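Retro notes (design track)

What went well: tokenization of the new backbones is finally stable.
What didn't: we kept losing track of which sequence belonged to which structure.
Fix going forward: every design gets posted as structure first, then sequence, in one message. First example under the new rule, 385 residues:
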């Protein structure tokens, strides 16, 4: 009766060993599944990072194009400013010429006045000579010759007066032409200055405007880089900085590369960091990444810990191979830092038999001989064969 009781106890220990082994296998499978889930999450994070990189590259290209437009506008602004400076110089030259022509006109007018005075004097002299000739018919031929000379001088003065008047008119025409040229040059200079100011303003807008589109076509380089009206939190848009570092959605739908890599995205089945370390905002190992209860999914770190615990549980029950009972117990207590319990097992390498710990000490694992052949039957079968 005592032997039968020991056999059942030993059989119960074997069932415990089998259950422990089965649990270890189950935990290892769960750890493998968690590792696969973590790998899937990491791949999703990589894909999200690549998408964010492509989006950032697109926005960087837009920013580069905006910068090129800015450079062109600045070049146009510089050219316009140079044209304005040239026009201003031409205007100044024209004004100088106009002043010179005006001075020449004044001089010609003075000369004409002098000539007219000389003509009047000559005419008076001619009249006096004629009167003298009429009253003194007996004047000498020398007087007649003087009168003729005076008449010639008068005629010469009148010719000079006509020449002076012609020069005055020419100067007046030149002055009017110079004034018209100066007016046109001043107008052109003003237009160039206006165009230069407009180009400079547009260049500044392409470089730094964050309040909307520039020139009714596209957003500025600064808006694509750090955000602005029409770019930040806008479907199909988003600034390069937001795609790289923003903790929430960038365009109202997709999260940034940082969110997918290290965020707390429970609503999106967790980030790569959560699947690796643990769920929640503190990345706790024993907090589910998604779901709860029987639908809870945990991180790779959680399942690795479970597998390690299961392996340790198995080691605490089965010590391994040792030469005797004392060596097995010494390993369990001093090396494995455990305790010797009923049902523990080790393999006796000296006698090639499995040993189990019972309440009375270590015993060989018993074998069920119920279905073995009897001695007589075995002898008969041996003779027959």
């Amino acid at each position: 009766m005592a032997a039968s009781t020991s056999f059942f106890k030993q059989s119960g220990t074997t069932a415990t060993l089998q259950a422990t082994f089965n649990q270890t296998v189950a935990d290892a499978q769960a750890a493998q599944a968690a590792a696969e889930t973590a790998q899937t999450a990491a791949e999703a994070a990589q894909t999200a990072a690549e998408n964010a990189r492509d989006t950032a590259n697109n926005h960087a290209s837009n920013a580069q194009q905006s910068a090129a437009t800015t450079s062109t506008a600045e070049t146009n602004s510089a050219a316009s400013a140079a044209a304005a400076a040239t026009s201003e110089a031409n205007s100044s030259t024209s004004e100088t010429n106009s002043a010179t022509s005006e001075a020449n006109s004044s001089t010609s007018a003075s000369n004409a006045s002098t000539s007219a005075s000389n003509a009047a004097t000559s005419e008076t002299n001619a009249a006096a000579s004629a009167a003298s000739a009429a009253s003194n018919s007996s004047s000498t031929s020398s007087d007649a010759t003087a009168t003729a000379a005076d008449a010639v001088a008068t005629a010469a003065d009148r010719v000079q007066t006509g020449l002076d008047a012609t020069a005055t008119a020419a100067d007046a025409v030149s002055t009017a032409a110079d004034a018209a040229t100066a007016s046109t040059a001043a107008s052109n200079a003003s237009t160039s200055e206006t165009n230069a100011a407009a180009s400079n303003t547009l260049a500044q807008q392409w470089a730094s405007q964050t309040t909307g589109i520039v020139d009714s076509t596209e957003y500025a380089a600064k808006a694509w880089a750090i955000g602005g009206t029409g770019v930040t939190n806008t479907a199909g848009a988003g600034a390069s900085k937001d795609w790289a570092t923003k903790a929430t959605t960038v365009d109202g739908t997709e999260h940034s590369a940082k969110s997918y890599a290290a965020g707390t995205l429970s609503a999106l089945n967790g980030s790569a960091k959560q699947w690796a370390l643990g769920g929640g905002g503190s990345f706790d190992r024993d907090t589910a990444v998604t779901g709860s209860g029987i639908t809870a999914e945990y991180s790779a770190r959680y399942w690795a810990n479970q597998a390690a615990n299961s392996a340790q549980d198995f080691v605490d029950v089965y010590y391994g191979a040792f030469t005797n009972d004392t060596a097995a117990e010494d390993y369990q207590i001093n090396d494995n830092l455990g305790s010797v319990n009923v049902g523990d097992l080790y393999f006796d390498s000296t006698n090639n038999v499995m040993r189990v710990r019972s309440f009375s000490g270590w015993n060989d694992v018993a074998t069920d001989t119920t279905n073995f052949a009897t001695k007589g039957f075995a002898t008969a079968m041996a003779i027959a064969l």
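Added context from the reviewer: Residues 1-11 have pLDDT under 50 and may be disordered.
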